[in-house]
Structure formats: C-alpha cells, structure tokens
Design a protein that fits this description.
The structure is a homodimer. Chain A is of the alpha/beta class. Chain A has helices spanning 43-46, 52-59, 69-75, 87-93, 114-126, 140-152, 162-167, 169-177, 191-199, 207-219, 233-239, 241-253, 268-282, 299-302, 345-352, 363-377, 383-402, 420-428, 438-448, and strands spanning 6-7, 17-19, 64-66, 83-85, 98-103, 131-136, 156-161, 181-185, 224-226, 259-263, 288-294, 304-309, 318-323, 357-361, 407-412. In chain A, α6 packs parallel to α8 (169-177). Chain A is globular.
C-alpha cells in the first residue's frame, strides 16, 4: 500500500500529561462570581458541587498536569485514537488540500466525552464521593458518565430531559446497560422538579430544569457530587489529550495543520483538539484555530462577552463568557450538543483576544456534507461533528479555488449511530433550518445586560 | 501502564494474503449439485449469479490468495482491527483464564461483513459488473455491501425483508446514507415478489422471498450480479484476515489461544477467525475451535448433514451442509444473523470430521453475558456476537472451577449500536426464549430427506 490512511500511535506513545490552556493564555479568564454576592467565587463556593481535587484543577494555571495511572489504563482501551487522512473525501471534493481528522468516535460511549468522564469519576472516587448526579439532554455526556461510574463502582443518577427520555430511548438504554439510574426530568423528587410540575404536570423538561435537579440533588446530600461534561476548565483540560495525540501523529505523518477545526457547543471538544495547537501558536507557529457552532445557537458569532449564569434556571455562579442570555432557547436542531446558550470561559477569552475564529452553519448544509463524508470515508458522523466537517469543506473548497495546498485538521468528535433518525429526516427532506430573528437575540440579551459586565 | 489491553498492528503489518481453508481440509467439501439435474454444478452454472473471478475463488484449493492492492487500501481504513484483552471482564468473572477478543465492530458498517463486501465488489468491478443486487434481513450485510458499492461506484439494489424495513428503519437509513436503493420485499417488480403478493398483498416478507427476488433480478439482467454475505467458500476466504491478524497479535502478546470461539449463522465470521487456527491444528498444534449458534436455530447441534437448498424458496444449487431443512423457520430472536437454516459447507464438513465443536444457547443467557461484558469493557455487542461471549464465559467459569489457566479468544463480530431495542427489551424483561420442540425439527427434516444424501 502506498497511501497511508491512518496514523496510529501505540499505547506506549499515549501522552502522560494533560495540557492546561490557562498556562499560555495572554489574558487569563476573569473569575467566576458568586451569584448572591457578585464577588469572585472562592474554591470553597464550589465545594458542595465538586470534590476539592477537581476544584484545584479548575483553578490551576500549571502547564502540565499528570494523567493518573488508573485513568491512563482505562484510556488505553480506545486511545490513542486514530488520526486519519480523508483521501477519498479529498477526491470527492477535488481539492488540493490535505484533510485529516481525529476520530473520537472509537470510544466505548462513542464520543470524546469519555476523556473527561473517566477522569472526573476517578477524582471523585479518590475524594470519597459515594454517589454522582448529572443531567443529560441528547445523552452523549450521560452515556459517557454512566460508562465511567460503572467502572469505578459509583452509583449515578442521570436527570434526562423528559422529551429526550421519551423520544430517544436508545441513549437511555445505553446508560441503563452501563448500570446507571436514568429518570425523566422534571421529577417529583426535587424542589426544582416539583415547582415545575406544579405549574405544568405535563412539562417535557429542559436542560435548565435537569441541571437544577441534578445540582439540588448533589448539594443537599453530603455523599453526592455533581459533574458537568463541558464548559469548565477541568473538562477542557481532560480533552487536551486529543490535540496532544494529534500533534504526535502529525509528526509521524511529516505534516502540520494550517487550520484546526472543532464543533463548539460548550467548547470542550474544540478546546481539546485546539488547545495544544494554541500553545504552538503563542510560541510563534502559524496555525488557525476555528470553532464551529450552529446558526441556531450562534454564541461566539452573535453573542455578547458578558457575565451570565451557566444554567437557564439562573442558579450557578456567574461566568465570564460569550452568551446569548441564559434563557435563550434555540430551535430543536438535531445537534443537541450545540444548543448551549453560553460557552467555555477559556474559549470565550481566546475569541475575545482574536486567537481563535468562529463560524456558524445551518443544519441542512451540515447534513449534506456529513452524508458526502460518510459516502467517502464510511463513517457516519454525529450531527454535532457534522458542523466541523462543514467548515473543513469550506476551507477545502477555498483551497481549490485558490489552487493552494493546505493542511486541514478537524475533530470528528463522535459517531452518529444513535442519531440515525436525524439522517432519516434529512434523507426524507423533512429537516428544517429555522431562521433566528435578531429580535430573539435582542430579547435574550435584554434580560442579562443588568448582570455584571465582563468588559 | 503495566497492563496492556490491546495489541495493535500497524497498517504495514496487515496480512497481504487470505488463507484458503479448503487447502488444509482432511476431507474436501462435496460438490454443490445442480437443482434441476442433481449432477455436480459446474462453474458455468454459477455464472449468471457471480462473475468468473469470484467463482474461481469459490472452487480454489490454493492455500494462499493475494489480497488485491485496492482492497488492502480500503481495509486499511479500519484494519488491522484490535486484539483486546478483556481484563476487567476476567475480574468480573473471577476467572484465572485470560480472555482475548478480536473486535470487528470497528469497521465502517460496524461488523466483519465489510471484509467480504469490499472484496466482492472489487472483483465485480474488475469483471465489468454494472449493477449488484442482494437481500438483507437484519441489515448487517446490506449496510456493509452498500458501503462497498458506493466506494466502487456500482449501483446496488437491496431487497430488505419488509418486516425489518418497517421495524428497523435505522439499518435502512444507513444503506441510504451510503447511497443504496433499498426496497421492502416482496416487491411487484419481480415474478417471485408478484407471486407472493398475489397470495397475500400484506405479506411481511421473509429472507427466502428476498433472496428469490434478488437472484431473479440478477439472473434476468445481463449487467447485474448477485452477492451473498456468508455461507460460500469465497466469503469465508475473505474473512480469514480476522484470524490471520489475530495470530500476529498473539505473537505480540507472547500468548496462544487454547480455544477460539465465534458465533455461527452462515459460518463466515467463525470461519474467518477459526480458519487460520485450523491450519495450525492440522499441523499438530493443540487448539479447540468452537462455533456457537442460537438454540432457536441449532443447525450444527441438531441439524442433519445432507444436501439442501441454500434458500427457503428452493431455487439455489444444492449444498452439502448441516441443515434444519430449507423451510425451517426459527423464532424471531434478536440475533437475526443466526436465523439461517443451513451452514457453510466448509464449516459443516469440519464439524462432520470432528475438527470443530458446536454449542447452542438461548438468547436470554446471551444478553445477560453481553450486558456483563458491556459493563466491564464498555463495548455493546451485537446480539449475534453475544453468543460467542456466552460460550467464552462458559469456558472461563470452567477454568475457574478447575483452577486452570486457559487462554480464550472470541470474535466480537460487530457492535450492537443498531440493536438497542433488543437491549431495551432485555432490560425490561420482555424478551423470551421460545422453546423449540423436537416435532418442529422432525417436520422440517421430513421435507428434505428425499433430496440427495451427503453421507
């Protein structure tokens, strides 16, 4: 064979440390604020939610943080993940560009989320946590966390948005196969849930409600902690293994990317692949870093850099980030993981400092490129990842127009095996791009502009 | 890390030749018979169905057959597949046995089937075939063939059993994502389909009817050939890359299996992993080879070694094989790939010659072990593969009882991402083991005992 299509590292080549983006940011993130006092939140303020070893990671500015041996041992079941060259996709596009993708869909739960779930549960185990709660919408985080909790023997309760619980039974089933307790939110077992049910006994729930239930459950019980699958610094930290592996694999390939692309919901998969390349960039290397969001939820491209709540119920500490306003509700796109009103503070600060670029696309164009990719490479991408593919295509076609060689890297953050109903709708032509009027964005912004400014 | 959990070969270590089991069989297979004349079928008799380069492989006794370069290039996208050590599953079982599994679920369509679909479509392309037909039940073969036809640009028509078409839309959608035409069988476009619809306009179809439609479509059109995803010699040939890789990986591990296990429907995944070890066995190495079938369709364990038709419509050449009778209809178990009345002639002959063993299990015990496996290793197995896991557990628990070290290898032929409804039923306790009375077996046998004997 003449044409290598994947660059595979051995277990022994797996990175032994995570890279902390905070160490190399020209401007550090502003601190989160206590929602009651408006003062910078202290580590202690997070203690009811997270164990102290995770809070230490959250505030750390140390550049390299050792990956614990037991976490490496579990990573080794699917890591290092392959770096692939999409040769047939290049041919399909007729581009002179070289397109590489890092494939995170090889993990047991099918996405990059396990990189952080395994680490978070490990630290909770170490800290003596006896029980964990979380919320899940589409179910990627819920299934990754179920997998990890099962390995470490910590019982998990997942508050799953009721409409997803009913309409996406397969994700629920995976969590159950892994042994998690999954309940449709709102429930009648929390104050937050009961308050909603009192207003509307038939409520289908929302991510905001599910977060409020999972947080309340954790805060009220001494033995229980809460976990989050994106947005926070420690989650991005755990995901940097993606980019660190990719850098080693590019050395094998004798190549280096001109542009690094990741889809962007809360920011963890983009931060994971782009972070280690940011380190190169601040050290003078020429590389563009591109986050891709849904046009239905254009946080980085149309939001405001401002303090806002992390949840739509307005209960968490205030975070300095690009936000559409915490009660902004995007249309029901298939890429559930891209429907978050806010954005990781690290990614937000990097955008503010012009170290990264951001683009937003509608879902139909993304599915069109995802199907073309599947036909060329065989892999069916998750709807979230199709946004990264869309931008890779834009870059590749621009290279074709300009007659330029260009090296493109994108993160294929997960497979779409549990999203086939989205493809069914796309193929049947029943999928829609719902326009997002400026008035909706303005209305959501009105509600938060009284919160502390992050300017 | 001290404990290696996967043995990964590089692309450059991938086997360059398939191994032909026929070369080392102490007793060769008896010839297929022409269904009209009862005389041995000539290669020409198969020419309306298959191109001559595939027919040559079907009758070849050459030990090693080169894998064409373009096929290797496509294999390289997911091959070599990993050989994994199921360390946590061993701990769960508390066994002194070492359990290894070869994971074929990493292929684009999610199972071992792509090993043969890519090769078959390549040879058809070479022979000038302009169009391909096939049938599919559960959809594993249909999706693997859709993937391959798309790569080589050959239009594919899949006759999908109507009840599956309606109840398993996701498999249909995958085939459509890969660009195949999928129609619910029976159709009104073939004589075979029209005959059924005339009797019963609401017929939900059967694999037998779908085969008859796909064959008729191919035979009546000069430009069209038919493909089959199991049973035949050339399909087993293509699958031997599984066992050949496993042998190289065991060298890396410094180990060798005492027992090699594969689930057994038509026989191709079992033949693929066990074949190369059979070569060792006939050369004096001690290794047991175990095919595992469903107790609902116990071909090797309760069938007769006899000539029978390959399809339930009784139109194909007669094959010498273990069979339950071509009109035997197994209960509707979730492992659709194990519902075949017959068995690969090669596997059948090896069983007759006591070179392999066979066991049959009910589906509930298989799902129980599959869930235990998923909790330990993270991977959700296809229902078919759960039968191989079940027997691996039996071997591992026996080793525990006997206090013996033992090295177990099984083939994890595919993932279960498109079979979550089966897990849903299992978890809900609504899955059943339907007893198979001897009288049903006797009745099916009565109908074929007038066919030529294979004794």
């Amino acid at each position: 064979m003449t044409d290598t299509v994947k660059y595979q590292l051995n277990e022994s080549d797996m990175p032994r440390q995570w890279y902390n983006i905070a160490a190399d940011m020209p401007n550090p993130c502003m601190p989160p604020l206590h929602p009651g006092t408006g003062q910078p939140a202290s580590p202690q303020d997070f203690a009811p939610l997270f164990p102290m070893n995770i809070i230490e990671q959250e505030v750390s500015t140390k550049r390299w943080i050792d990956i614990p041996e037991p976490v490496l041992q579990i990573y080794a079941q699917w890591r290092p993940s392959p770096l692939c060259r999409a040769r047939r996709f290049e041919q399909t596009l007729g581009t002179p560009a070289k397109i590489y993708f890092k494939f995170e869909g090889v993990s047991p739960a099918g996405s990059h989320k396990t990189n952080s779930s395994v680490a978070q549960v490990y630290y909770n185990k170490l800290a003596g946590t006896k029980r964990i709660t979380t919320e899940t919408g589409a179910g990627q985080w819920g299934s990754a966390l179920s997998y990890a909790c099962n390995i470490f023997g910590i019982p998990l309760k997942v508050y799953m948005v009721k409409v997803s619980y009913e309409q996406k039974p397969y994700r629920k089933n995976i969590m159950q196969v892994y042994g998690a307790e999954v309940v449709p939110s709102p429930t009648d077992t929390t104050n937050a849930g009961r308050a909603i049910l009192a207003q509307d006994p038939n409520s289908l729930g929302s991510l905001g409600i599910a977060i409020a239930e999972a947080v309340e459950d954790a805060v009220l019980r001494e033995d229980t902690k809460y976990t989050l699958g994106s947005v926070l610094n420690h989650v991005l930290l755990h995901q940097t293994i993606i980019g660190l592996e990719a850098q080693k694999q590019f050395k094998l390939a004798g190549d280096y990317p001109d542009v690094v692309i990741g889809c962007c919901g809360g920011g963890s998969n983009f931060g994971g692949i782009a972070g280690p390349f940011l380190m190169d960039k601040v050290n003078g290397k020429e590389v563009r870093l591109v986050g891709v969001e849904s046009a239905a939820c254009p946080t980085l491209t149309k939001g405001h850099f401002h303090y806002d709540f992390g949840d739509s119920a307005a209960t968490t500490p205030l975070m300095p980030m690009y936000t559409l306003g915490h009660d902004f509700t995007p249309s029901g796109i298939h890429a559930g993981g891209l429907r978050y009103h806010g954005m990781s503070p690290i990614i937000s600060q990097l955008k503010k400092d012009n170290l990264i670029e951001a683009y937003a696309y509608n879902q139909i164009e993304c599915f069109t490129d995802a199907v073309a990719f599947a036909r060329a490479e065989g892999i069916i991408p998750a709807p979230e990842a199709s946004h990264a593919i869309r931008h890779a295509v834009v870059e590749a076609l621009r290279a074709k127009e300009e007659g330029k060689e260009k090296v493109i890297l994108f993160n294929l953050s997960g497979h779409g095996h549990f999203d086939m109903s989205a493809y069914e709708n796309y193929l049947a032509g029943t999928i829609e791009d719902v326009p997002l009027p400026q008035s909706s964005l303005d209305a959501a912004w009105e509600k938060i502009k009284g919160l502390p400014s992050a300017a």
